[in-house]
């Protein structure tokens, strides 16, 4: 398990850097990655993960206006789903930049704002999924069109589509700092990406002998 977790740490940290570069290009702003904390956990009780995510969202709510949650199904060799959690204030500022508005003018999330946020979500999630594809034989992990949930009541993704036998969770908490002279113009991004898979499927795939030549 330690070897697997170390591999996840290396790849997800690299993916966070890639996501930072990609968002810098999209936003036409200089962003730098200041931290990326990765954890890999396996639990037989889904309620443990649910409670953990509730705590994360509740921690965001008091000072940052709540949480924006983007979710997506994961298909391919390994099935599951992913979530991208973003403080509401960060999401609104991203909308200001992408929609060419004065910083601080976006107050609500409508169709235009959802489209802008999903564009950033697809970039971030896509970078992490690309990295997940390098973990042993966990290749060909695809995601469909993301859906956006504005969470004002600690809403959580639907775990029912995954087997109740246990979940493998890969969590990445990252902080992207906006490099700008005027501190009031900063649009720092403090996000969390979670990926959930059936732990039995993960174990089965990781135990398959891997031929490096076939992955070239």
UniProtKB/TrEMBL annotation:
Gene3D superfamilies: CheC-like. InterPro entries: CheC-like_sf. SUPFAM superfamilies: CheC-like. GO terms for biological process: chemotaxis. Keywords: Chemotaxis. This is Chemotaxis protein CheC, inhibitor of MCP methylation.
